[in-house]
Structure formats: structure tokens, C-alpha cells
Amino acid sequence: MREQDPDTRVSNFAEVPLGYTDEEARAEARRCLGCRTAPCVAACPVAVAIPEFVGQIAGGAFPAAARTIRRANALPAICGRVCPQEDQCEKACLLGKRGQPLAIGHLERFAADRERREGRVEPPARKPECGKRIAVVGSGPAGLTVASELAGAGCAVVVLEALHALGGVLTYGIPEFRLPKAIVKDEIAGLEALGMRFVRNFVVGRTETIDHLLKEDGFDAVFIGTGAGLPSFLGIPGENAVGVYSANEYLTRSNLMKAYRPDAATPILRSPRVVTVGGGNVAMDAARTARRLDTVQSIVVYRRGEAEMPARIEEVRHAKEEGVLLRTLCHPAAILEDEEGFVQGIRCLRVELGDRDASGRRRPVPIPDSAFTIECEIVIVAIGNRPNPLIPDTTPDILVSGRGTIVADPADGRTSRPRVYAGGDIVTGSATVIQAMGAGRAAARSILEDLGQPVQPRM
Amino acid sequence: MNGIRKKEVLAPDIVRLRLEAPRIAARREPGQFVILRRIDGSERIPLTIVDGNAEEGWIDLIIQMAGAGTMRLGRLEEGEGVLDLVGPLGKPSRIDRFGRCLCIGGGVGLAPLLPIARALKAAGNHLTVLMGARNRERLILLDEMRNLADEITVATEDGSLGRRGFVSDAFRDLASEGRRFDHAVVIGPAVMMKAVSELTGRLGIPTTVSLNPIMIDGTGLCGGCRVDVGGEMKFACVDGPEFDAARIDWDSFLKRLGSYREFEHRGREKCRITGR
Ligand SMILES: Cc1cc2nc3c(=O)[nH]c(=O)nc-3n(C[C@H](O)[C@H](O)[C@H](O)COP(=O)(O)OP(=O)(O)OC[C@H]3O[C@@H](n4cnc5c(N)ncnc54)[C@H](O)[C@@H]3O)c2cc1C
Ligand SMILES: Cc1cc2nc3c(=O)[nH]c(=O)nc-3n(C[C@H](O)[C@H](O)[C@H](O)COP(=O)(O)OP(=O)(O)OC[C@H]3O[C@@H](n4cnc5c(N)ncnc54)[C@H](O)[C@@H]3O)c2cc1C
Ligand code: SF4
Ligand code: SF4
Ligand code: FES
Fold first, then answer.
1. Which end of chain B has less Cβ packing within 10 Å, N or C?
2. What residues of chain B lie within 8 A of the CB of A163, using their CB?
3. For helices A50-58 and A22-29, angle between their N-to-C axes, nearest 10 degrees
4. Does this model's pTM top 0.95?
């Protein structure tokens, strides 16, 4: 897929990949072998009918392709962009055995974008009202999926969202240049057409508790999809200096509050040298955002090797093309500040990889006396997020793991409390958009089952 | 849209807004706050809930026009409204029967102090209030505090009302009389809270302060509101905003408050020029 030239794109926030033309899409789609065993479908967490929609694109039946995808995936324009396809559908593609796997994500994106450009043909089907009322907490991919499935099944669904904007990480976390917010808005508006209601500015646990929703507000069931939004910090000296951000704060300022625009009300510090600590998608997003905010030298510091980086390969490639530098095998020991408390640099130790740890990755071991300093004015900490304790703390008897996640059966979303379900990052810890959607779909089915409603057959 | 039912100008740059907010009015407890956005594109601004009425469905906020965002809020009129209002946020104050309580408030810090003082009084405490402002004109909530307190001292920096000086001077007076207290709540500008809580701490009075760090989401998402409390990192929006004063690393707190000084200046200038 064609992309914006790196030198141009570092001075804008427009999307990097430009999308297929009709001809390009059809050409790519024609490469599909239409395998009868369809290993690609088995590798997609929501089992999109890949050979079918790809075949429709090849035949030029673009609206039909979009409808096919939507049967399994309510947010195709989003998943086509942010799914880690190389670990899922495309990893299993038989074409990948000899050469390039089929660009399934790009084709999914193409079908959804084309549908969007032309306006949705038919409103999605909805069953007659069943009289059941469901509260969905959080409007990230997990919550949106539950809500759309249940609304489609005829339930009255109310989505409660703490922020003033819907979409969860899709809106506040993933940057515009990777996932344009207009697309997130459109996809959500499409779901709203199913008849669900969105209530913004509603913090469950504070505005109302889960128990209040069930007992006083008369909801038949509650789904918790509150994500893993609590940022972890390094616990090293200097972390409270001015210029140290969590990736969440940096990205929230930029994405949710639009601080990248010159006329924005919310400020964001801009400076020539930024160090981002971490090796995942979040770190790449932060380091690439920094490049677009006047940073000349944007460095990612990661404690293991490049091969061990959890970030998507495409994101690492994009970051490098944009001039982001990787300093791997590097362990931050302290953040240095000047007399006024502003960041001056970050002190690091070099690292060797030792024995394999529980996760199967080689453990980073700092080398004594190897300390060195990287000068910078901003440090962004992107070492992961944990679940927010607000709901566990205000919901008696709900079982919570040692990591702070809500315990729920991954197959059906049931928690230790009757009528309370959970899914997405709040259950798994930080994972992926499509996994959160898969969990939402599973929970929707068990909610319908438990409420004695017919479970919608997969169309 | 949450409409403004009533507006009152308390001082040249301080207004009291009564907002339509039935749910928040029903749930709020002393010490809690809301975050609001006036229009799309505005900052998210945290403000303490000063008062509220569950039956009538309103809450009161007192706003000091400190920068561009609060200036725009302060210009709102009755009948207008704010686009986004979320709350109640933060942990409620710890209200107990402590015995002799000291409430010390400076400037607009008197606003968050009022509901706490009220609750402490209702819980059966003896209430001594020390309140201060730059001058008589800027001293807010005097009548309310008078009605509540068992004893009250006013200090103004220019001596236009009450004792000339800071509330910390007023506290020193009390201390030199050998007065004893079981609990103190200190709320005001950060430098004032630091100075006063050092004095109360020295006399062994357990002291609570309400911190007002820079916040964005107010739900524990960004960590921008982090404070060092007893060597532990706390998020003021979910773990606070009230903390034990003796355990706060004040220097780091003050430093972080100043993070956006340059932007704030620019914002204020722009707001004056364009009148937005
Ligand atoms: C910067 C970044 C980049 C990422 N990139 C990718 C990627 O490229 N590909 C990918 O697959 N995954 C990516 N992820 C991970 C992915 O975004 C998450 O796994 C996914 O969003 C989880 O969905 P969720 O619905 O569980 O939660 P979230 O998306 O976190 O949504 C939770 C929602 O609940 C709301 N909420 C929280 N508490 C409350 C409450 N008490 N009351 C009401 N509402 C509440 C939050 O405000 C939020 O809107 C990325 C994550 C981040 C942070
Ligand atoms: C929990 C909490 C409760 C609050 N309650 C009240 C209240 O009841 N009434 C009230 O008037 N204000 C209150 N504040 C402070 C208020 O939120 C800030 O004054 C406001 O956000 C400043 O926004 P601005 O755009 O007007 O000014 P800016 O342009 O952002 O800043 C103007 C000036 O205010 C200072 N400042 C910036 N942010 C803050 C902040 N969060 N707290 C204190 N000073 C700040 C700056 O250093 C600067 O001098 C509270 C803050 C918090 C965190
Ligand atoms: S949803 Fe994700 S994993 Fe499934 S087919 Fe689409 S891109 Fe692949
Ligand atoms: S495995 Fe690859 S080639 Fe085979 S059907 Fe799936 S996408 Fe097409
Ligand atoms: S304001 Fe973001 S975590 Fe407190």
C-alpha cells in the first residue's frame, strides 16, 4: 500500500498509509487462493469470512464485501488498520508459506472505507424490542461490541463512558496518523443507528456504582469494559520532574485534547529531544507523535533487543522511517533534572540478555559500571498500563486477580457476580482491539442466554 | 448540556455558578469535585463542589478566573450552559468526630473548605475557622463561615478586614496562646498550604490538605496529577485530592504545578485580546 513520504508525514498528523485504489484492491484480492480449509479465518479472533469478502472485492462487489466483514466484525475500518495482522489472519495465510501473505488487513480497510465513502447502503438489521435493559460500562472496542450485539438482539442498551468522547483507546490513545478520529466517529455513529444510547461523562464507581445500576436503575445486566488505563511508572529517581509524561498523558493531550493543533486549549510541551521508554505499540505511538511535535531527536529506549520488541513490525518500520532512533539493551536508572525541576536527561545502564524468564524471553541484566546519559528535555514512560481500581473498589464481592484485573471467564465473560459481565483489557490486561471485541461478542451471547433471550445466530 | 441556573459575582475575578446537575447533586460528598468543559475544544477544568441540593438538582461551583479556561467559564451567564460536566470525582473527605477542628482557608481555597467545615460541624466538632485573602474585596464566603464556626479569625494581606497579614500569622497567634487542636484542614494556594501545614505539623496537629495539581481526565488515566506522598506515587484525582500534609513532597508538587507556565501566560493574553 502506498504511504505518505516520511519527510512529509513528520510534519503532519494525516494518516500514513494512503489506501488502495479500486484496481489495486482487486489486484491484491485476486492473489487469494480461496483455500477451502481457510486457515486465515481460524486465526482471526472473530472469524471474519476472509475468502468470501476477498472474493467479493476481486469481483468488484465492494458493498457486499463490507457487509460480509460486518457479520463478524462491527468495526472493520478500525481493525483493518490496527489489528496485528502479522500475528493473526495474515500469519496463517497459505500464501505466506512461499512469499507475501495476502494483505487481509489492507483489504478489510479498503472495503470499509469504500462503504463509508459511499454511505451505508442498508441500516443494520435489528430484532424487535425484548424489554431487557443492559448497561455497558466503557465505550472502547469491548463495550462497543457488546452494545452493538445486544442492541441488534433487541435489548435497550445504555453505554456509560467516563470521558467526554467515545471510543476508549481508539480515541484517546491511538494517534490520528494511524487511526483518523473521523473514522472512529463514523464507525460509532453507525452503531448508534442500531438504537443504543450513549451517556458520556459518567464515571461508574463515582457517578453511580454497579450495584446502583442493577438495583436502583433497573438494569437487567451490566457489562464492564473499562480497559486497562492506569499508567505504570518506572519507580526511578526524577520521575516527577517537569517534562516526564506517561504515554497516556502525552497521547491524551495530543489525541483527545488535540494539543497538536496550534489553537488547542490544552498545552503539550514541545522540545527538540524526547526519550520514550518502552518497546510496544504505545511507545512507538508516543515517539512518532513526538516527531510530529517539533522533536528533532526522538529516541526509544528499550531494555531488550529489537527482536523482542512487542510493537508491531509495521509500527517499528514506520517509526524508523520517520527518524525515530532505537536504543535497545538499555535500562533507565534515573531521570536527571535541572535546578528548576525540568528534565535534563536520562541516565541508563547497558544491558545483557541473560536466561529466559517465565514469558520465554531472555531476561535483561544491567551491566555494572556501564552508565551513560542521553540528554533530553522530555521523557515519556510507555512501559504498560494496569486496570483502574475504581470499579473493583466500589463493587463488593467482585473477584479481582492479583494483577488487579477483573476475573471473568474468557469464553463467556461471566464474573463472580450474577448479572455482571466483563471483557477486554479489564480482564486480560493490555491486549488488542480485536481481542477486546471478541470478548465483547462472547459476553453478549452469555448475557442473552442468561436473560433467557434467543442468542442471535451468526448470520 | 448542563444549564446555569444562577450566577453571582463574589469578587472582581471570582464567580459562583449554580449548575443543573441532578445526579451529581444526589451523590456528592464533601471534598469531591467535578470536571467540566464549556464547549467543544475547551480544556477539562476541575472544580470543587461547594454546595448542592439533591431535591432541586443543582450544584454550586466557585471559580477563580486564573487563566484562559476559567475566564471563559466566568463569563458564562444565567441560561447558558456547559457542554460536559462529570462527577462527583475524587474521594470524599474523612469526616469524624475529631474534637477541636481547625479549618484554615486562603483565597479561593475557602470554596472547597466550606462543605468540609459544614460536615465537620454537623459531626459534632468544635470549629475554629481562620480565613484569609489579599483584601476585603476578595474575601469570599464570610457569612457562611460565620454562621458555621464556633470562632473565626479573618486575615487580609492589606489589613482591609480583620488582622493584617496571612492566615499563617493568624495561626501563629492562636498557637502562641497555647491553643490545642485535634485535626486541621488547610486549603488554599499550594505555597500557602505548604507553609501553614508545616506550622500545624510542628505542633503535632494531624493536618489534611486538598491538592489541586494539573489534571486532564480525572479518572486515573493519565498520571499527570501524580504526587509523591510518603515516597509513594499517588494520583490526586482518584487517591485524593485530600492527603496527609506531613507526607507530601511539597517541592516536587510546586514544581509540577508550574509545568505549563509559559502556555498559561500565552492563553491568558489571547483570552484578553480576543475576548473569547
Ligand atoms: C497507545 C495505544 C496503542 C495501541 N495500539 C494498538 C494497535 O495498534 N492494535 C491493537 O490491536 N491494539 C492496540 N492497543 C491496545 C488496544 O487499544 C486495547 O487492547 C483495546 O482498546 C482494549 O479495549 P477495551 O474496550 O477493553 O478498553 P479501552 O479501549 O481502554 O476502553 C475503555 C473505556 O472505558 C472507559 N472507562 C474506564 N473506566 C470507566 C468507568 N469507571 N466508568 C465509565 N467508563 C469508564 C474509558 O474511558 C474508556 O473509554 C493500543 C493501546 C494503546 C494505549
Ligand atoms: C481537584 C481540584 C479542585 C479545584 N477546585 C477549584 C475551585 O473550586 N475553584 C477554583 O477556582 N479553582 C479550583 N481548582 C483549580 C482550577 O482547576 C484551575 O485554576 C484551572 O484549571 C486553571 O485553568 P485555566 O485555564 O483558567 O488557567 P491556566 O491558564 O491553566 O492557569 C492559570 C493559573 O492557574 C495555575 N493553575 C493551572 N492549573 C491549575 C490547577 N489545576 N490548580 C491550581 N492552579 C492551577 C497556573 O499555574 C496559572 O498560574 C481546582 C483544581 C483541582 C485539581
Ligand atoms: S479482524 Fe483483524 S484478524 Fe480478523 S481478519 Fe480483520 S484484520 Fe485480520
Ligand atoms: S489462507 Fe490466504 S490465500 Fe488462503 S483463503 Fe485465506 S487469505 Fe486466501
Ligand atoms: S488527572 Fe489523569 S490521572 Fe489524575
1. N
2. 217, 219
3. 130
4. no
